[in-house]
Amino acid sequence: LKPRVAVLTFWGRLRSWTCGGHYHENPDLDLINVIEALAGMPLDVDFISFEDVKEKGLDSYDVVINAGFAGSAWSGGYKWSDVDVVTRLTEWVANGGAFIGVGEPSAVPGYDTYFRMAHVLGVDGNAKTRISHGRYSYDVECDDAIVSGTTVEPRGDIYITDGETKVLASDAGCPTITTHDFGKGMGVYLAGYKHDEVNNRTLLNLILKAAGEELTQKYLTDNAMCECCYYPGDNQLVIINNADREETTTVKTDAGDKTVTIAPFDTVIINL
């Protein structure tokens, strides 16, 4: 698919497709769950460092993802103190880019906001320095086409900073999934991320939405519990059911829509 994605970490390409060891050793790290999801998506993904942002720019990308807890190499830690990085990312989003933050993205203490990209994300984390400030109230604007069935655990004291921030999901009075228009681009925030079939589709939906692409694309299933792959050389479509129950899904193809019902954990091959 068209969106070109960059994952921004302290290490950049030096530690592509890895986080804190194996997935089963650190299942609670947001970034390793995001990586696991991205690995199965039909997207080009690069891993970039903060030096890359300054030296190479971001023109090659439609979406930048920053995921991790404050002070970690995954979120970037003190690298967010570099005003040049914040300025370049802000300009890039204003010109049409999409910044997706997970957990405590761009977090570093000592500034007017805890999240350095709070102005883009439309949310911030409470570093206990703004206790006397009022809070925006909000209504949850759930978009089932994007977030239906998604589970995101609340994180600390997250609050919206802009009356234009759209809260797509909330838990215990804390926003857990938000979007925020910024110039020609968008900021997206998730309080956390756990890899599973439904959450994976939600992340893909958010990437597509943030990049200005349609959610319904050719060679994607319309059922989060199923996935597919098209092999143009053989002109074959392979559809897999990842659920422990029978599922029905439709896939848009160049030969028209294909609808199949698949037994639990089964695979169907269609000659187009």
Spell out the key features of this protein.
single chain, 7-stranded mixed β-sheet, 14 strands
What topology emerges from the helices and strands here?
Blueprint: E1 4-8, H1 30-38, E2 44-48, H2 50-55, E3 63-68, H3 83-94, E4 98-103, H4 118-121, E5 123-125, H5 144-147, E6 158-160, E7 166-171, E8 174-182, E9 185-190, H6 197-210, E10 226-231, E11 236-241, E12 247-253, E13 256-262, E14 267-271
Parallel strand pairs: 1-2, 1-3, 3-4, 4-9
Antiparallel strand pairs: 5-6, 7-8, 8-9, 10-11, 11-14, 12-13
How would you describe the overall organization of this protein?
- By secondary structure, this protein is an alpha/beta fold.
- The chain has six helices and 14 strands.
Summarize the structure.
With 272 residues, the protein is of the alpha/beta class. The chain has 6 helices and 14 strands.
- Average pLDDT works out at 93
Proportion of residues in helical segments = 10-25%
The outline comes out as globular
The helix/strand order is EHEHEHEHEHEEEEHEEEEE
Strand content: 25-35%
Radius of gyration: 19 Å
Distance between the termini: 20 Å
How many strands in all? 14
Spans with pLDDT under 50 lasting ≥5 residues? none
Specify the structural class: alpha/beta
| Strand neighbour order, sheet with most strands | 2-1-3-4-9-8-7
Put simply, the count of helices is 6
Largest sheet: 7 strands, mixed
